[in-house]
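Methods — Computational structure assignment.
A single polypeptide chain was analysed. Its primary sequence is given first, followed by the predicted tertiary structure written as structure tokens.
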Amino acid sequence: MKETKFFFITNSLFLMIFIISALFLSLVKSEEFIVGDDQEWSSGTNYQSWSKKYNFSVGDVLVFKYVKGQHDAYEVEEDTYRSCDGSSGVINKYESGSDRVELTQAKKYWFICNVDGHCLGGMRFSVDVQGFRPNSTDLSPTQQPVPAPPKSSTRSLRTHNWLMGIYLLASGILLPLYF
């Protein structure tokens, strides 16, 4: 009898943790974007237009694919972006040919190719990163204006707090039964 109760409580606790974790992960989702889509990171693509097709959120990843040695990707400050002069204002340099840049903060990011003439030729863009992305099954580009950061950030925070409350309540009920 005591062994059956222990088994039931242990299984219930693990099931509850699994369900709550799955719910949380399904509510907050990040995306991976190949910069330039099929054209990747190369000359002749309008990257400013490309970046306007998407709504970027904290946790999303930009993937720069290019031939190493022919291009590079620099994350830069706004003045460097505007002048296309990568001699100063460089935040990060990416030069591998397959670079992954995680957007970790809700802010504006600026990127350029620092190979001579490429930035002035159009290999530059900026992205305005919003708070966490709510889960969506629609992965197509949106034509809607980007919502204000406080609303999406607040919504994600409320959802997270709600799930944490359920988790703590369930833990408070089940843990005393376990011991």
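Note: DSSP finds four helices and nine strands in the chain.
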